[in-house]
Amino acid sequence: MTSMIAFLGCGEMNEAIMAGLLEAGTAPEDVVATVRRAERVPGLASRYPGVRFISSEEEPEGNRSACEGAAVVVLGVKPGDTVGLARAIGPSLRPDAVVVSVAAALPLAQLEAALPQGQPVIRSMPNTPLKLGRGVVSLSPGSTCSPAQLQQARAVFEGSGTVVEVPEEQIALVSAISGSGPAYAYYLAEAMAAAGEELGLDRELSELLAQETVAGAGLMLGEPGATATALRNAMTGPETITSRAIAVFDGRDVPGIIAEGARATVKRTAEITALLGETALD
May I ask the CATH class of domain 181-251? Predict the structure, then answer.
């Protein structure tokens, strides 16, 4: 990719996306990123030599200047600040520049309304393993985004993990699985460590066993052709000790509990979306 990419806001998520893009071969000279505090610039510049970093503390119009000439602009600020940022940068955008939002629960309609008419917009839902190049990102194009522009956005994210395309109405469902999903895995590791300690293992040892086991199982799931069902079935034949644990989990309806939790995240996403809509009307 040779077109300029602008990252507005360089928090953990946007930095992870940028790092993956650079790792995939994009020239640092084709990337510009903005931060609020000037004190962050030296550290970022040392980690990503060649990338141009702009501090809005030193350059109040830095976000607008970063967008000038950019083919893709990634908005990486808080959901409540995203619409205001979109309004501010509108005059500086190329008409064909693709604006990508990573803000959770912020609808495409609000972004499109805040930008110049016809501006291509994409809503994304990345997850935290993006930082390790093993993330999942969903992309939902807006009403004026062309297939070629959607492909431009895919190219920005593909260096950080798996990219899927979904209609906007499914974003909350994706978030319930991949967005919140890493926390489910951490919760499982916590529970496993607590169980080991209760059985009599040293706390530090039990935590190590649980963390490395969950991490290792995740790597096995990433192998070509692997499925969770096949890997589990290989360990849970009728005479295995592991099958006894799965029987207990099934008896407590752990799958149903997880599904209930996922539904709760979908409900909360809808609540946040409604709040953001009220804020946009203020």
Answer: mainly alpha
